[in-house]
Amino acid sequence: MKIINNAYEELKWRGMVYDSMDGVEGLLASEKVTVYNGFDASGDSLHIGHLVPLLALARLQRFGHHPIALAGGGTSMIGDPSGKSVERNLLSQDVVESNMKSIKEQLSHFLDFESKINPARVFNNADWLMELNLVEFLRDIGKHFTVNYMLSKDSVKTRIDREEGISYTEFSYMLLQSYDFLHLHKNENCILQTGGSDQWGNITAGADLVRKVTGKPAYGLVYPLITKSDGTKFGKTETGSVWLKAERTSPYKFYQFWLNTDDRDVINYLKYFTFLNEEEIKELDDEFKKFPEKRSAQKRLAQEMTALVHGETALASAIQASEVLFGGSMTGLSSNAISEIFSDIPSTKINAIQFISEKKNILDILVEIGLAKSRGEGRRSLSDGGIYMNNERQSDPDRLVGISDFLDGEFIVFRKGKKNYHVLKIQS
User: 91 falls in which pLDDT band (50, 70, 90)?
Assistant: First the structure.
């Protein structure tokens, strides 16, 4: 196996270098530098689209570089026009500060803030941007930018060509992000900024500003924007974005997202998103090519990502929940987990009083919920071993079902055969 000697080589073989300014490759090979990546604070959670730059920052730290995660508490109140067709709603300072607290906690899953050699740091650009004097800023910073230069950047040019145009608020975003780079360069000796490829214009503008003001070099490196082979947008599902915050996307759904990765994408995703080395990924690739039906690469991807973001306990629960549909044990599953697993399964709501006052015969229930057309058919299905309650086979037609049979006090899951499910819910 080829030995990876520096962070640039690591990012390169993983397919994560979309473009970089001259000198970056040699810089990362010869020095330990301070590098920053900005993260939007317009929501209370990062989503999986943020994982490429976030994990790249973690990889740079593992090679000895000094990472800074810059939370955009100030710039999030303006809104970056990059990749946007219309202007975003402007956020209040209170909302941004609340989002910041949540995002900081998420960053700790990836970056080492306790390292004695190169600890990660988090800054909020509101700390300096909110203190700026407008006239001084335009005089000292704005003079280094020509309107022609700003109009040439894709993030601005694409918006000007649209009917909605671009507001002066968003037009000024480039100056603010460039000032971030200058501030971090002066105060933290930061000489490298990274981000997605849609940030290339803002990043190069910042590097230019650093050089003009200080006379010292500054650099930029950008990562590819991840796409899916089927043409759909990465990180999106039918219900919306896949978030890192468990309250917004549960560990079970998070696990399922990665488990359902297209065969054409899975090896690349293992490179982009996991810390598995080249040899480990090659072994998974070889096994996947021989036995694609086992989906071993997808399973490993889902395991690695869920453990990384949510921890080993959440991973174990997600795996158990995933196995339920294949007859796995339901013991210990929460009502929330059951509700998610069987969200698309037919269900019937019943009054709890019916089961508290007296138990009901399983044959009557099978008929009521439609898994049997008659008691006679239900009796035959039970005799043939085709009826399951909470994934446990039932054979006794005289079996009484009571409140104690409800999982977490809320659900009973009936199954006929391998795939014919029906959920009995306690009505709230």
Answer: low
Q: Nearest CA to 254 among 331, 332, 311, 328? A: 311
Name the token pair of 228. 């899916």
Rounded CA-CA distance 286/370 in Å is: 46
φ and ψ at 193, to 5 degrees?
-115, 140
232-252 burial: b if 16+ Cβ within 10 Å, else e: eebbeeeeeebbbbbebbbbb
Q: How many CB atoms lie within 10 A of CB 117?
A: 9
Main-chain phi, psi angles of 420, to 5 degrees: -90, 95
Q: Which two tokens stand for residue 297?
A: 């690469």
Among positive and negative, which fits the CA dihedral 66, 36, 176, 102? negative
Q: What is the pLDDT of residue 162?
A: 72
Tell me the C-alpha to C-alpha distance, in Å, between residue 49 and each of 39, 227, 310, 354: 11, 10, 16, 48
String of DSSP letters for 130-152: TT--HHHHHHHTGGG--HHHHHT
**Which residues are bridge partners to 192 per DSSP?**
35, 219
Q: d(Cα 158, Cα 276) in Å, to the nearest integer?
A: 38
* pTM for the structure as a whole: 0.83
CB distance 43 to 106 below 8 Å: no
Q: Which two tokens stand for residue 247?
A: 């309250």
Q: What tokens appear for 238 in the block?
A: 């039918």
Beta strands in 250-352 (DSSP E): 347-350
Encode burial over 336-346: b for 16+ CB neighbours within 10 A, e otherwise: ebbbbbbeeee
Q: What sign does the CA torsion over 312, 318, 323, 327 have?
A: positive
Q: Residues 94-111: what's their mean pLDDT?
A: 83
The DSSP code for 345 is S
Phi, psi of 21 (to 5 degrees): -75, 155
Tokens of 124: 């909020």
Direct distance between the N- and C-terminal alpha carbons of the chain, in angstroms, rounded to an integer: 59
The pLDDT confidence band at residue 163, using thresholds 50, 70 and 90, is low
